[in-house]
Amino acid sequence: MFSKYIEKLLLLNLKVPKCNVHSMSQICDTNCKEALGKRMKVQGWVWAVRKMKNNIFVDISDGSTSKGLQVVIPKSNKLDTLSYGSSIMAEGELTLAPNGSIELHANDITVIGTCDVMDGYPFAPRKQYSEEYIRQYLHLRPRTRTFSSLLRLRDLTSASIGNYFRNREFINVHTPVLTSNDCEGAGELFSVKPCSAEILQTMKKEGVSEEEYYFNSKAFLTVSGQLHLEAVARALTRVYTFGPTFRAENSKSRLHLSEFYMVEAEVAFIDSIDDIMDEVELLIKSVTKDVVEKGAPDMHSFGCHEPQWLNKKFTRMTYDDAFKILENNVQTLEKPATYGTAFSKKEELFLVEQNNSIPIFVTNWPKEIKPFYMKACKDDDSKVAAMDLLVPEVGELVGGSMREDDYKKLKSKLPLRTNLSWYLELRKYGNVPTGGFGMGFERFLQSILGISNIKDTLPFPRWPHNCNL
Ligand SMILES: NC(=O)C[C@H](N)C(=O)O
Question: Which UniProt keywords apply (predicted)?
């Protein structure tokens, strides 16, 4: 296996690293017999140090895999500055330990960066810490085993989403982060204005508003790439974007972030929301299967299992039917549901729970509570062809709809949105029906990895009053 990796590099015409430093993933994951007896150089951070009678045992990790490598050094070496948390480089021979795993018998260890564990380093080996405790040290959190597993699983999931779309012939489009539109119309925008001294001075001189000077219009951080994606879908047919989106919601809940990544897809030439739901279900199940399979060691060290719904068909029901279920369960819910409003988190979670924890697509929503761009249902003008996917523990994970493609109907909904004339114009030239969806990436990670708090799904979470680090 190990030599196969080298072979692959050579095939790609890439140079095998000269310094002969190998990653833990190359050494531990391949579990290769060929590497045994070879001299290797490794580098990483120390998880734990055990001083025994003749030898010092050091567990190190470079973060490339969930596994650590045990380095064994004769005690005759003077290594006063070696402690957990320090960074080291070790050189020696790879051998098989009595338990069958690979270890490095080092004759040389260099401490690259010391770690004074008495001077505030917040983690000690083999100690369990709560997520809240670890979250206080965002800059050191990647050093913990669980969080480094999370980061690798996040990477794997993100790559798997890219592969899924490629296999399904979707084209990746980078939609802008800076925009002048509020796609969702909910006003949850962060506004952007320049703060360069030079520009500020010019603005003052010219007496122009700070907010509108730079772009000639107000600018915001995007809440969704959908509108731009609709423009590209009317040329490339099947497109997706996967990038950061921002919502100025005043919520510190375990399910909200001010900055989150969203996977959004848009498909042209479709005429039913059912096609969108089929795509969402396939995406979620394919990516989850892939992560469960390829990420097994990290899922194990992270302490999570394959989600129970993975092999079950997702339920589909209308808003009206979901509402009836809520109405019939007033006692359990304490508060009666109000028809024509969005479901509360409690109601969303209840609906999934009573469905044996199988995800539910809720369709045919009252038009008043959904954004302007959604298309009316064919058989009921008071409802829109939209869906929300509700999943266990998280509630709403995906939202999507057929888009209003009738020029006149859309125009009547746009009077207050003069800056969206370009969006309306899409319905004028070679118009086609489109539909699409958006899935919050962090909520997806929460649901497949069983993470209770969304702040533990990405390295540097942003939420109200928290943007210092
Ligand atoms: N692309 C989408 O359909 C997502 C939708 N704009 C939302 O933010 O919920």
Answer: Aminoacyl-tRNA synthetase, ATP-binding, Ligase, Nucleotide-binding, Protein biosynthesis
